């Protein structure tokens, strides 16, 4: 499978050498190529941050919106044209901080999109402040005495809300990351993938080595349909489990529930509905 | 003998939850079906039960479509009703109500108070709920509406209710007619009104419906919004059209999400709008700026209410013109339309979709609570005069979303239609849409975006001049004050005074300056405290309008009020 399909020419990548974003970029290209998705069928939606620049290093349709606001347009794009594969991708600050409310409600709506969060436990683009997932004690020029807020637990939150696909990977393991992206993108319904990603410039605590030592793969016996067990696993913060925590394949998607696709499967974007007669009748009914 | 001629103002006043709105609906419809012109508007408190709310219904021979101060018939439905509207009643007002609702110490001898034991009669029929229907019967009877028109309307209105309930309603109607008959004889009241059978074929809609119908005519197939008075009616209206018109209606988690969804929907090939009010729009502002940068169309219905902050949630004001005009960081073009007539609500909202698509800019439909909640009969809207103009192109392999063009408009493609890739970015971007910090290109992109304003200016809607072309005095207004100013001036009968009404407030029409230069005196009428259109006119023409009639207590202007204020200046 040719992941070069998604390569762009002469780009000037704004990431630091050694950044975890590179492996996520390559893994995603690989996963899409293996799934046989073509650039014209894919929309990458992102917010703002270093991670959120990823669509610019891709040859595909791009909607690079506002900081924290990738999910609302991603939801709408999928609803207007369900033929497209839609992936919303940003950093942990963007998705879990600025855009936290949208994440909760995206899970409730369950659009058939995938969210990939580059979780480096720090704000990269704004040069090293704490993020919602920074560990307690993490010092920055702003959090001078170290972070004291409890880190946000995206997986536990998503499972508690019965999200339809909840997973975590470590960007240091490319092969697993590719596999996980493939699963998430093929999953019907809302999929959240939290990607642990080292930030070589601003996070000297949660390094490649640290993540290697503080992660492990969920046992083969883990049953992702067991919500309570998944929740229990999600609460483990000493050593982060990796893999698919939770699945609820039975949920209807936002597009299915929206009411506009019940009878007519043609995407809204391509519908040429003749409205005039209906509109006249509606106006007439106001007599 | 009390004779009312040609124009009668009826006010129902009571607590929230007493069913005033139901009576208003019933009455306006049956009066219209009988060939009378009707106009209704309400003022209400921000609560679900209690308080004092009132509805005015004007019934007339000639069309009138504005709020009157005067009350000819008052139906007080609660103890506090008379106090609530006391400034509007006069010795000519007929007050029809039950004793309990006439406050102690009220000088009944000075007024015409007719005691009708609505509650008692209603209880006899089957419960207090029927007192409203008896009331509707009385009014219909006074206007000599054929009893079966009211009966048929109620049967239709209550079609989902049991036969027993329908029967009781019909009994209540009968009772009401008997009372009316009695009043017409014993109290010697007479109504002298002309009927026009053509009115029966007219439609009766409010501002929210006009905007909603306009959205449908403009091809709207996506609405994402968060409830906020007085804008919610449009969301409700479009949600109800989900099946017939295939509109995706989503209640977003907040206004930030709402506008970002709408922008996403346009990007993918939908035609989307949001409906909101000041506070909600404030949350949308970063999104507005995004639409400016992405050059993605978006239609924003902004229904104004008094601010700052939560302000007066259920009241009216025209104080968010500045907000709509200057909202959003950075510099980008926009269009602001401000309907005056209900017809404008329809045609302008429809137009908003086409303009947004053509110029790839945010387009505002700026209304207010008074516009949204008022309704009256108008000739059926002409759907055949409307079009849904799509400016989406099929892309080719070398497609560039932000190609630099002569007029600044880059052909807009959507994902999945053609071979090209559609890249949009909230960062400054190159022609392809990718992030750039090439500062020369930045300048070109700013110029390109602003350049669109030149084309936009070529199709600005001209302000409407009502009255003589050769005027000495010019009254200036915008948006929802259209009818009230027009009617006030008609009452003044001054050949030398005309009215200039703006239904597009941005960009302002280039002729604005000429209109103003021709006049000896200009008088501005605005439902706000700082004369926001006046400021905009000054900015555009350098001309300061010194005479101002401004109102900002949360209520709409009445005809009498505008007239007496104009008299001071004329
Ligand atoms: C409304 C708004 N607030 C703040 C910013 C500044 N800002 C840009 S990116 C960012 C956080 C970046 O952190 P993260 O989302 O974790 O992404 P990373 O750069 O670490 O990949 C912030 C605060 C902005 N662009 N917009």
Q: Describe it for me?
A:
- The complex is a heterodimer of chains A (287) and B (570).
- By secondary structure, chain A is an alpha/beta fold.
- Chain A has a single domain (20-256), classed as Rossmann fold.
- Chain A has helices at residues 20-34, 71-80, 92-98, 100-109, 154-160, 174-186, 208-213, 227-234, 254-257, 276-284, and strands at residues 42-46, 61-64, 85-91, 114-119, 122-123, 129-130, 165-170, 191-196, 215-217, 240-247.
- In chain A, the strands form two sheets. Chain A has an eight-stranded mixed β-sheet with strand order 2-1-3-4-8-7-10-9, sandwiched between helices.
- In chain A, α3 (92-98) crosses α4 (100-109) and α5 packs antiparallel against α8.
- Chain B has 570 residues and is of the alpha/beta class.
- Chain B has four domains: 2-192, Pyruvate-ferredoxin oxidoreductase, PFOR, domain III (Pyruvate-ferredoxin Oxidoreductase, domain 3, 3-Layer(aba) Sandwich), CATH 3.40.920; 206-385, 3-Layer(aba) Sandwich (Rossmann fold), CATH 3.40.50.970; 392-459, no CATH class; 464-569, Rossmann fold.
- Chain B has an eight-stranded mixed β-sheet with strand order 7-6-5-2-4-3-16-9.
- In chain B, α5 (147-157) packs antiparallel against α6 (163-186) and α7 packs across α8 (232-240).
- Chain B is globular, with a radius of gyration of 26 Å.
- Chain B starts with a strand and ends with a helix.
- The mean pLDDT of chain B is 95.
- Classes of the chains: A alpha/beta (287), B alpha/beta (570).
- The interface between A and B is large, with 56 and 64 residues.
- β2 of chain A pairs parallel with β19 (423-425) of chain B.
- Bound molecules: thiamine diphosphate.
- The site of thiamine diphosphate has 18 residues of chain A, from β3, α3 and β5.
